[in-house]
Design brief:
about 80 residues, 4 helices, mainly alpha, globular
């Protein structure tokens, strides 16, 4: 994600963060054998987090946890294992 791109929109930041959360859930909780998380997805999410409020990232995490039937505390530990 090019943060200097004048065409970059708020929705692009949300998409980047959402893609990361979904990839982590897929790779850690869904046993489909196909890994989705790439370094590019993780890097884009880290960049997006710099510009997204905690309320926005929390809403994304909460929504996806419900969709994929993952406990919110478990999801937090998957996303941020060092904390």
């Amino acid at each position: 994600m090019d943060l200097n791109d004048p065409e970059l929109e708020f929705s692009d930041l949300i998409y980047a963060y959402q893609s990361w959360v979904m990839a982590v859930i897929n790779d850690e909780k869904l046993d489909n054998g196909e890994k989705l998380l790439t370094e590019e997805i993780a890097d884009d999410a880290i960049n997006a987090m710099r510009f997204l409020s905690g309320d926005v990232t929390n809403a994304i995490e909460t929504s996806l946890a419900r969709v994929y039937d993952v406990d919110s505390e478990e999801l937090a530990s998957l996303l941020f294992p060092e904390e």
